[in-house]
Amino acid sequence: MHLQNISLTFFKNYDSLKIDFSNELNAIIGPNGSGKTNLLDAIYYLSLSKSAFVKIDKYNIKQEEQYFNIKGDFSGATADIEIQCNFQLGKGKLLMADRKPYEKQSDHIGRFPAVMIAPDDISIINGGSEERRKFFDGIICQVDAEYLRQLIRYNKLIKQRNAYLKYFSDRGSVDKTLIATYDEELVTLAVYIYAARKHFIASYLPIFNDFYIELSLEREQVSLSYESVVAEPSYHQRFKASFAADLREGRTIMGIHKDDYLFHIGERLIRKTGSQGQKKTYLLALKLAQFVFIKQKKNLAPILLLDDIFDRLDDERIQKLLRILNSERTGQVFITDARPERSRKFFEALDANKKFIHIKEGSIQENMSGYYE
To answer: What is the CATH number of the domain that holds 259?
Structure first.
């Protein structure tokens, strides 16, 4: 699978753009602020029906406009498929496959998998547990539609239960029968989600370990583990017993939405003791393992989007990464860089179909030969 082309209208800093892509390596070159990352984000949007960077759709509209549109043709195993996403102020988002709207936008997730590696991803390591849950849930959701449905249901019920907790706390009286109906389903969903996450980690961990060893040249010993209160045999009873505390807080303080993934280097958490280089290598191994895990589960190579990575890695790690990208483990790749001469240096040795796309203030210059004009 690969993305053949993309068309943008009023998406972020673009008025209008249409461009074809190489099915292997695409280098997007241009000064900072020219729109390189925005083009990557448009590709991500087509793949996963949302931005990798901006949670609220309306903020992806070009300033002073009323809508944006993204359209692209994916080459599938048996046929080409046109995916189009339109967002209009006051009307919301419309997602279509071959001009037919999806009944549920969640049905799109996993059809055209993608993996983004961007500078802000370091929050997966340095940030709170929510960042790590979001990262790993994003992987599982791209390969397991039932997990996605159950997770959406769980999050909806937690939001409703929290609203009732706040209402009961403010009013000073409680409908315990109503809360009990939420509790029973939430516990059942939590057990399902825990089992799926545990099974996922068992499959993902060996892939991650292999990549970290390859990228770090076996310099450090690292580990990754999953931690959940649902693992405790008494979870059901503890969840019910936490109701008084939930009422005081006005929110559900225990559950699968509090799980965490622990990243260690040696015996200590990497976010506390790891160097910047170690964190970058750990993050890169996490992301490359995401790519391979999805590829194995779906028998389909995700699109790989690499934003501004050359400024974040030393030459040794860059060379190692490029050898991985040049192997049969990867499919279609998009890389942004602000320095054309550096990209040419790194890419000239790669045995791949290369396309260089130069962006300057929203305009595009292309060169399929591998050399710059």
So the answer is: 1.20.1050.90
Report how far residue 7's alpha carbon sits from residue 232's, in angstroms, rounded to the nearest whole number. Answer: 50
Which tokens hold the place of 301? Answer: 């190579």
Q: State which amino acid sits at residue 339.
A: R
- C-alpha 263/C-alpha 279 separation (Å) is 10
- Which pair of structure tokens corresponds to residue 214? 């390859």
With a pLDDT cut of 70, the percent of the chain lying above it is 95
More confident residue, 108 or 363: 108
User: Is residue 15 classed exposed, middle or buried when 0-12, 13-18 and 19+ CB atoms within 10 A define those classes?
Assistant: exposed
Structural domains counted in the chain:
1
pLDDT for the residue numbered 195? 97
The answer as to whether 66 is a domain residue is: no
b/e string for 155-185 if b means 16 or more Cβ within 10 A?
eebbeebbebbeebbeeeeeeeeebeebbee
- Domain interval for residue 264: 123-299
Please give the model's pTM, rounded to 2 decimal places.
0.89
Name, in order, each residue with C-beta under 8 angstroms of 85's C-beta and a sequence gap of 6 or more: 45, 46, 49, 69, 70, 71, 93, 94, 95, 96
Query: What backbone phi and psi angles, to 5 degrees, belong to 370?
Result: 100, 0
Amino acid in the structure at residue 58:
K
- 3-state secondary structure (DSSP) of residue 88: strand
Q: Do 17 and 31 touch, CB atoms closer than 8 A?
A: no
The span from the CA of 173 to the CA of 181, in Å, is 17
